[in-house]
Amino acid sequence: MRADARAAGYNDASHALGRLVKLLGNNQLGALLGVAKSQPSRWLRGDPIAAENERRILDLDYVIARALRVIHADKIGDWLTYQVPTLGWARPIDVLATQGPEAVTYALDTIEEGAFL
User: Fold this and answer.
1) pTM, whole model, 2 decimals?
2) How far apart are CA 73 and CA 39, in angstroms?
3) Which sequence spans correspond to the domains of the chain?
4) Which stretches within 2-85 are classed as H helix?
5) Cα–Cα distance between 25 and 71 in angstroms, integer?
6) Residues 6 or more apart from 7 whose CB is under 8 A from it?
7) Mean pLDDT across the stretch 1-8?
8) In which band, very low, low, confident or very high, does the pLDDT at 12 lie, cut at 50, 70 and 90?
9) How far is Cα 25 from Cα 80, in angstroms, rounded to an integer?
10) How far apart are CA 18 and CA 41, in angstroms?
11) Quick check: 84 and 117 in contact, CB under 8 A?
12) Is the dihedral of CA 95, 100, 103, 105 positive or negative?
């Protein structure tokens, strides 16, 4: 588990998964995580979560918690898949997968400071 996610209190993948499903739904969450759309509900029913998927769930939960400060809840899923100028026109979900949450939270910080989405 990433130290920054653990320090922020996001150390339980099953609780994070529940929050993400509630906010995004199974289909969108599965797509964002790169797994079958039904996989989040299987995990919630008790299927084991592989370490790599656990990390991705915790990272996404951390980023979304930060995003909720500056982006309306019903737009977060869309924002994660838009090309964002502060990320070099990359999609936040791709940057999260390749660089971790730090770059994405930096983009959120710039939005909070008044940068254009």
Assistant:
1) 0.84
2) 22
3) 3-112
4) 3-7, 13-33, 39-44, 51-67, 76-81
5) 17
6) none
7) 59
8) confident
9) 14
10) 9
11) yes
12) positive
